[in-house]
Amino acid sequence: MKFKTLSAALFTTAAVSVSGVSMAYDEIVSVRQEPVQPIQPAKVSDPQLVKLGAMLFFDPRLSKSGFISCNSCHNLSRGGSDNLKTSIGDKWQEGPINSPTVLNSSLNVAQFWDGRAADLKEQAGGPIANPGEMAFTHELAVEMLQSVPGYTVEFRKAFGTDKINIDMVTDAIAAFEETLVTPHSKFDKWLAGDDDALTPTELRGWDLFKTSGCVACHNGAALGGNSFQKMGLVEPYHTTAAAEGRSAVTGKDADRFNFKVPTLRNVELTYPYFHDGGADTLVEAVDIMGRLQLGKKFTPDENAAIVAFLKTLTGEQPRIIVPILPPSSDATPRPTPFAD
Fold first, then answer.
1. CA separation (Å) from 150 to 14, 224, 330, 332?
2. So which residues are the signal peptide here (predicted)?
């Protein structure tokens, strides 16, 4: 690749390869002074833990039905989301909120739209025990894993013991999710100095994104995820969704309808948009956000330019080899997808 304003020395090759996860990235060093930084490649310090986490992420036996896995709602072939307004839980229950992408989620200030989980480890345990999602319990999940000989081997390799507990489970899932980063987007290449990485329309979109005020909330490496903001700052946002936002965690009425600002990385892949999935397209989302958050009505040309810029944020997707899961033993409790 030819760069006009920097040398190849600004890209440091980093390779990672573990069972279930395969990565080979160049580290990007930013040279432009912008309110957004390039996504950096994952650095795996414990490949065995990541391997175990990948297995658990894809294993539907962590749900009561034996059908729902972490990947069901955070599908790694679909931008780390499920492209539904709200996710489908146990017994086809309708979820209360849109499923955010798991990609680059390690960059979030907190997890879930309302920030009720401090980190990925805390988040990983939530859906397993949520009756509207995977509908299991932590105790039953551990019992299931403990009954699978192949899993006891993997936990011994990762933790040095056969005795499994839920902390180990969430540690491993979080370790895997921390590898799900997406560097090398067109925008990252431009940030690193490649003047030819963006078209004039995409550059105009970036300029509009900055000068209109979008970057006040969508900044940092993830272009979001680092603050909570009110949905409907200039005009009220009308929705039938029951989610209250941050106030459900803090108990403060002032935090009502405050939600974690979503990352815009890979946003082309993670439709529909907003906490309620209320916008089906980027054109619609840009129009609504302009009016409700900024008090600005974008022209069709301005909207198209911003959308063109947003599409440059799609990065290199994690190259995942779907793990072969260890078989259940005769003692493994069987799933009960149709039981009350």
1. 31, 39, 13, 12
2. 1-24
Look at residue 82 and give its three-state secondary structure. Answer: coil
Domains of the chain: 47-177 (1.10.760.10), 186-311 (1.10.760.10)
The span from the CA of 83 to the CA of 251, in Å, is: 30
pLDDT in tens, 285-319: 999 999 999 999 999 999 999 999 999 999 999 99
What are the tens digits of pLDDT across the range 160-176? Answer: 998 999 999 999 999 99
Residue 110 CA: distances (Å) to CA of 41, 114, 116, 130, 173? 20, 8, 7, 19, 16
The overall pTM is greater than 0.70: yes
Average of per-residue pLDDT values in the chain: 92
What size, in residues, is the chain?
340
Element (H, E) at 18: strand 11-18
Alpha helices, DSSP H only, in 63-211?
Answer: 70-73, 120-129, 138-146, 149-159, 166-177, 186-191, 200-211
Q: What pLDDT is stored for residue 170 in this prediction?
A: 98
Distance CA 235, CA 238 (A): 9
Structure tokens at 223: 């272009």
d(CA 224, CA 215): 9
Give 227's contacts (C-beta < 8 A, 6+ positions apart). Answer: 109, 217, 260, 261
> 3-state DSSP call for residue 111?
strand
